Amino acid sequence: MTPTSPTPALPPSLRHGAYEDAQALLAGTLFVAMALMLFNQSGLLIGGTAGIGFLLHYLTGISFGKLFFVVNLPFYWFAWTRMGREFTLKTFFSVALLSALVELFPHVIHVDYLNPLFAALLGGLLLGTGCLFLARHKSSLGGATVVSLYLQDRFGIRAGKAQMLIDCSVLLLSLAVVPLERVAYSVLAAVVMSVFLWISHRPGRYVGR
């Protein structure tokens, strides 16, 4: 298996320190957890492994946090062999933290009324922002994000484009479980997130690592 091409060494002033990485991973994961809370309360879905976790949650009643953590386990091997040790460890930390936050949120916050269109738009932006934070600090939330970042680094395929294709495919499969209206709002959220990443996360634009 061919690993990704090594990135050029950066001057110390441009490298992220441990504190900067920790801050970005916490903030990015928190943004995503807020988006998933909005989706859960409005009955929406998301693509990738998070979407699979939501589908299993709706079908089994098992909490999303636990399912999301388990569904991501097979992707760590791919991340380790293709993206490297640092990326894999940071991704594992981010997924574990997100699973914990999703379990915690229902005990500390609740929204009494939430329009699904607003949830789709705001949730999509929160997801895109959170994933961008993580990607710029060599992390992800596993699953489709790992694959899309690998395709961008290895073949130059924009991460947002790959993420959109994967997410929309998963959402279309959910039609057997979720009403069409909710799937349509979920697709909108996936498009908002992916367009945000498509525009904002370009190879070579951001040099800090």
TrEMBL record:
Membrane topology term reads: Multi-pass membrane protein
Membrane spanning stretches: 24-46, 58-79, 91-111, 117-135, 155-177, 183-200
Among PANTHER family, the record links this protein to: UPF0750 MEMBRANE PROTEIN YITT (PTHR33545:SF5), UPF0750 MEMBRANE PROTEIN YITT-RELATED (PTHR33545)
Recorded source organism is Curvibacter microcysteis
The protein's matches in Pfam families, at most eight in alphabetical order, are given as: YitT_membrane
Alphabetic keyword roster: Cell membrane, Membrane, Transmembrane, Transmembrane helix
Where is it located? Cell membrane
Source organism superkingdom = Bacteria
- What is this protein identified as? YitT family protein
Whether Iron counts among this entry's keywords is no
Q: What is its main location?
A: membrane
Q: Which InterPro entries match?
A: UPF0750_membrane, YitT
Q: Does the keyword DNA repair apply?
A: no
